[in-house]
């Protein structure tokens, strides 16, 4: 049963989604941060031993699946991502090095308050001319660096800004409504076996602008390798979310527009659907 955060009696609450069709949820007696402070075996026992009534889950009460967890992201973990970065920047040497080197590219994507979830808008910058979703498998990690669960993520990206200069990556990646995570977390003990398949679709009205799928077995790095590098010198006492990179990069002829709808699905894990809005202001003249 997936984990969800929701508003119950006016307070953020962690719960077990009992029936996705109804849906109903059983509240848990601890927060997500408290769950992720425990070793995996203890967290699993807490979740599996949960009892109590199943309450109706109102969509408006669903919260993003983070409370104290930062969201980090890995880049250039798939060959297609490397090729896309070269396409946008023209810098083959830089991204070949990032792809092949022992140390991966890892960057801070969002703090908890800046995360949006299923059904909420994702943003494209008003000072950007080329914008794409990046459909990714997200890892929910505990304080000890163990993978506790998976979710679906969308690392929205301004390719025009990053392509202008690689040092502009924070502006291309981190801005209002740039990070979307599925409302549900599938625990590892209930997830399908690896590899995991991930897909993305961009819809514009009745038209499909772009659709593609890939699998985690196309990654140049393993999940555990990425987690090891993230936590090498970074304590995460409340856990963290790590987006593992994308192998689904539209060509130069595709850019998302306000009103588009982006759907990210990790098979057997979660589905994430977000409309697109424009955020911020145009660049100063």
Mean pLDDT: 94
CATH superfamily (homologous) name of the largest domain? Fumarylacetoacetase-like, C-terminal domain
For the terminal residues, how far apart are their CA atoms?
52 Å
How many E-type strands?
Answer: 20
**Any idea of the CATH topology of the largest domain?**
Fumarylacetoacetate hydrolase, domain 2
Order of helices and strands: EEEHHEEEHHEEEEEEEHHEEEEHEEE
Low-confidence stretches: none
**Backbone CA Rg:** 18 Å
What is the oligomeric state here? single chain
- CATH second-level architecture of the largest domain: Alpha-Beta Complex
- Determine the fraction of residues in helical runs and give it as a percent range: 10-25%
Number of helices: 7
What is the CATH C level class of the largest domain, in words?
Alpha Beta
- Large-scale geometry: globular
- The fraction of residues assigned to DSSP E strands is 35-45%
Structural class, by secondary structure, is: alpha+beta
């Amino acid at each position: 049963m997936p984990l969800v955060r929701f508003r119950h009696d006016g307070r953020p609450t962690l719960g077990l989604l009992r029936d996705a069709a109804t849906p109903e949820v059983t509240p848990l007696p601890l927060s997500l941060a408290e769950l992720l402070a425990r070793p995996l075996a203890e967290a699993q026992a807490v979740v599996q031993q949960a009892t109590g009534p199943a309450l109706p889950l109102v969509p408006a009460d669903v919260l993003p699946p983070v409370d104290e967890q930062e969201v980090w992201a890995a880049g250039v973990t798939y060959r297609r991502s490397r090729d896309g970065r070269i396409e946008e920047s023209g810098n083959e040497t830089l991204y070949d090095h990032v792809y092949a080197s022992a140390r991966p590219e890892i960057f801070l994507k969002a703090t908890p308050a800046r995360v949006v979830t299923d059904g909420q808008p994702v943003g494209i910058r008003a000072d950007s001319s080329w914008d794409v979703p990046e459909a990714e498998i997200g890892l929910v990690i505990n304080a000890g660096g163990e993978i506790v669960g998976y979710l679906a993520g969308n690392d929205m990206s301004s390719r025009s800004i990053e392509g202008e200069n690689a040092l502009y990556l924070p502006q291309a990646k981190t801005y209002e409504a740039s990070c979307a995570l599925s409302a549900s977390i599938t625990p590892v003990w209930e997830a399908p076996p690896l590899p995991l398949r991930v897909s993305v679709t961009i819809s514009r009205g009745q038209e499909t602008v772009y659709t593609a799928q890939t699998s985690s077995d196309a990654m140049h790095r393993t999940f555990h390798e990425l987690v090891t590098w993230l936590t090498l010198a970074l304590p995460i006492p409340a856990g963290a979310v790590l987006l593992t990179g994308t192998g689904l990069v539209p060509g130069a002829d595709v850019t998302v527009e306000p009103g588009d709808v982006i759907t990210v699905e990790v098979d057997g894990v979660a589905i994430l659907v977000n409309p697109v809005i424009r955020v911020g202001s145009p660049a100063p003249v």
